[in-house]
Amino acid sequence: MVPGEENQLVPKEAPLDHTSDKSLLDANFEPGKKNFLQLTDKDGEQPQILLEDSSAGDDSVHDRFIGPLPREGSVGSTSDYVSQNYSYSSILNKSETGYVGLVNQAMTCYLNSLLQTLFMTPEFRNALYKWEFEESEEDPVTSIPYQLQRLFVLLQTSKKRAIETTDVTRSFGWDSSEAWQQHDVQELCRVMFDALEQKWKQTEQADLINELYQGKLKDYVRCLECGYEGWRIDTYLDIPLVIRPYGSSQAFASVEEALHAFIQPEILDGPNQYFCERCKKKCDARKGLRFLHFPYLLTLQLKRFDFDYTTMHRIKLNDRMTFPEELDMSTFIDVEDEKSPQTESCTDSGAENEGSCHSDQMSNDFSNDDGVDEGICLESNSGTDKISKPGLEKNSLIYELFSVMVHSGSAAGGHYYACIKSFSDEQWYSFNDQHVSRITQEDIKKTHGGSSGSRGYYSSAFASSTNAYMLIYRLKDPARNAKFLEVDEYPEHIKNLVQKERELEEQEKRQREIERNTCKIKLFCLHPVKQVMMENKLEVHKDKTLKEAVEMAYKMMDLEEVIPIDCCRLVKYDEFHDYLERSYEGEEDTPVGLLLGGVKSTYMFDLLLETRKPDQVFQSYKPGEVMVKVHVVDLKAESVAAPVTVRAYLSQTVTEFKQLISKAVRLPAETMRVVLERCHNDLRLLTVPSKTLKAEGFFRSNKVFVESSETLDYQMAFTDSHLWKLLDRHANTIRLFVLLPEQSPGSYSKRTACQKAGGDSGNVDDDCDRVQGPVGSLKSVEAILEESTEKLKSLSLQQQQDGDNGDSSKSTETSDFENIESPLNERDSSVSVDNRELEQHIQTSDPENFQSEERSDSDVNNDRSTSSVDSDILSSSHSSDTLCNADNAQIPLANGLDSHSITSSRRTKANEGKKETWDTAEEDSGTDSEYDESGKSRGEIQYMYFKAEPYAADEGSGEGHKWLMVHVDKRITLAAFKQHLEPFVGALSSHFKVFRVYASNQEFESVRLNETLSSFSDDNKITIRLGRALKKGEYRVKVYQLLVNEQEPCKFLLDAVFAKGMTVRQSKEELIPQLREQCGLELSTDRFRLRKKTWKNPGTVFLDYHIYEEDINISSNWEVFLEVLDGVEKMKSMSQLAVLSRRWRPSEMKLDPFQEVVLESNSVDELREKLCEISGIPLEDIEFAKGRGTFPCDISVLDIHQDLDWNPKVSTLNVWPLYICDDGAVIFYRDKTEELMELTDEQRNELMKKESSRLQKTGHRVTYSPRKEKALKIYLDGAPNKDLTQD
Q1: Greatest distance between any 2 Cα atoms in the chain
Q2: What tens digit of pLDDT does each residue of 209-225 get?
Q3: Which of 278, 594, 1004, 1172 has CB atoms 3.0–4.6 Å from 228's, for a disulfide?
């Protein structure tokens, strides 16, 4: 341990002598200051727990731990899961028990419990060690025995607290998802043993599982009249014992009681009589099981998981069932071989029925027949070979308990751990994943389960959920009981494996030591050429010098070919505040660990690799300074320069600060105005010369704007000054990238830009020749403008005579805010002719002009009497009104008309009808008026900046695509933004849509015209799509064609717009020209219908007189089906019901196409009559069933005949199990007299492949059963074979 002062680490370690009598002051501890202690390993050895005398009390055990004490009475595992105690050494080393735990990958506790049990079984571990892996014959990654061997070696020799099991599960062929599947430990035991047997074929271990775990029993039936007995021999690996007999409310009290019930025979009488081969008739008989042979390792499974037929759910039985530490199995061996004249020959089922249990193994009615004898049988069928004195062999069937696998939880899930007795010291241990601890016999008794109350039927619901699930006993036989192999007894290949694993572990330990002494900190660097901030993570050893760290950072940022290393240095940096805290002059040879304050998991600061030009000198950054980014503002050019960084102290006054800036930017301090931006849109002019920077609100990192000119702007109030307006625009301008439609008529942009260039229409052509914009053709728009000229001329002249007061002669004065600097355009400080900007101040002389203009659009389009030509003309006039003048003067247009005349005429037209602002499809979304309640323009005070120029997008955007880079004030409304884009899109704002593109390339339409662009940020992308924008009460609808007899019954056609109050027939009329132009469908209104679409399911048929929002609920992004009719529409009333029928022909194994059946009521009899009419099947022979799943309710022809609920016993369609209440239901029907076609195996397999392929293409499953639990499988080749034909 090394003491050190705060902010001053001691470079050389000075270990404290723990045996010294010095006081803390004498040991160089500083009073009143923070003193730091560094814990290090002594002589390379990690700290160890001091083992005390075993006779010490419990208190001494508690004193050894640094951390919380265990709960009272809990030494290890208890009835509830107890979190283990941690100490410094327990994190580094294995448990003090000497045993190593296993890491739980996620839900692999069941696997860990079984693996620890097998490891603690001497006979299994020793046999596994004797098996030798041949790398030339098999891949070690997929070899299950080899990975188990490695795991056991690590469990025996590792110094870790716990080791991973990922290599073992990888050899099973499992991926990471299997770690999240919880399985039954008994199921895993069975599957793992099967896999090991397969892997050990033709080796010495080929019969190991059977030798250790396999027993034999006899399954017999004996005639009670003649004594004739039929029987067969079965093998088992475990004995399943029921906790509670079927139908009983009383659980078995002990394992012995359950074993007796297991072999208790049942009487077959009454309807269950047995046909006796000898008597040649049905007779009463006795059926049961007899144990013939018990294995060396006896496994008992306590069947605690059951099914409750009342609730129809799986349950766990937590009833108490005791089990002894020593179990005498001699009382359960069969010695009964009554003098039966004949028996059937024995058939050994072998592994075929290995360990399986039949449903008739447990009697529901216990018989007290005294004919059951008990004794010992030596597997021989001869009565003369039986031992008549069972007592002589009784000691050979005494089993001792050594493993209890415990389950804590419910039938839905829980946690496994194992309580295992070591045969080395006869001590019990709890192996709970990575925690291993000693336990006592009292802890084992707590796993019996149950509660202190009576054992009633529901007692298990209130009992502890932690109880024994699997018990493993070992036969007490001194001749066979083995001990674990010692190290010197290991086979040579195991010794080599031990050495190999030790070397790997030492290597990992060294790597962890390096990691423990490595500083990991964020590294930033502003690329000196690209001017892009790069980010990386610097990992440097704490003993490396600062100079070496600079070299590492230099290479990490790939600056070798860009700048010399002498022009780079590391400085302390706060990325969040963009603040350079300090530099490290003269500390190039200081260890990084001391400069950074030691090795930490996270740092409260970062590092910046600062660069300079060869002719520059690095500035010294001292702690306590504040960083100020100074932007110089040029009012004449209306530009804001790139920042210049200066460092100041918070104690400096404003006057001193101005002098400091004056030296940095070479501006006179006397006329300098300094504006501090404390936060976004919070601009503060520093006017008090004697005030300190701290008092003005300066912090670590600050941004100021300075201006020093001789204009009179400084005499104005700051919020009215030109400087404030420029800074306000600068703070609120964002850069957007706009993707234009592929066929964007760019000449319209050229035309409108020229209108802004000057008021003299005679110079338009000359100006336009100089403007280079998006290239394209605009014949249609120009033609509309030509047509509109004559029609609007009379209106404009009338307006000029009535209301023109000479304002049109005023010159246009606009403030061109053209030079906001951006990373892509910093060098261009002047207005470029090639990049002509479009800008305006959204201010209107008449507050109603803009509002009424929008209203006129809505009213004109909704006015049925207005011709389409007039509507187009009035709408197209909007295109000429792109630019508004800040000084309320009309802007001369290319056709000689001014904006005032156009807006006035449109206002007049709008006032004739109902005043309604056009909006989104949602009624409650508000209006899109650009004016507040007082009628005052929302943009009256704010300067709405807009500048657009062509932009060369990255490759891959596709040919024909055109991009704009737009700088725009984000306080502008979407409506105004769309008006600005009109010249570039070549269409009116009401004829194109704006889609915002998110990071995942998902596009969402922006439709709320009254909302601003405040939610947008720099470099957001926008896609423009041609198409009419929505108005209030309108909804965008996706139209799909319903093709009931096609492989893909749902085909997208087009996007349409439906309006509130429109009838279905009107919507069909509007769809007809769109269907003809976009889809090539020539239809009349009587040739197709519209119907509800719910995902892929067709629903209610919409009748022509139905009205949207009144009879049919409609919403945003609505979807409908369009169905082409074969004949006249049969649906005339809402009381009718249209269902889709399909005939199943079992004799041909095929389904006919769909046919629609229209019913006048929901009567089943009417449905039968209709099916009889279309099929010709006699009424009494028709059977029908409702289809399952989504349309078209596909089902395999191999399953349809028996899987569907044919001929339900109901009289109406709207009751269970049909529930047909709406149009579109699928009905299968058949002729019940038609026989099912008999298939050969070859035909069935061929048909199965075809059906599986067909159903996969349509996206439908073969079955519709609920999700089942994933089966536990171990793949012998290390990876599952995925059968694509399976569901």
Answers
A1: 136
A2: 999 999 999 999 999 99
A3: 278
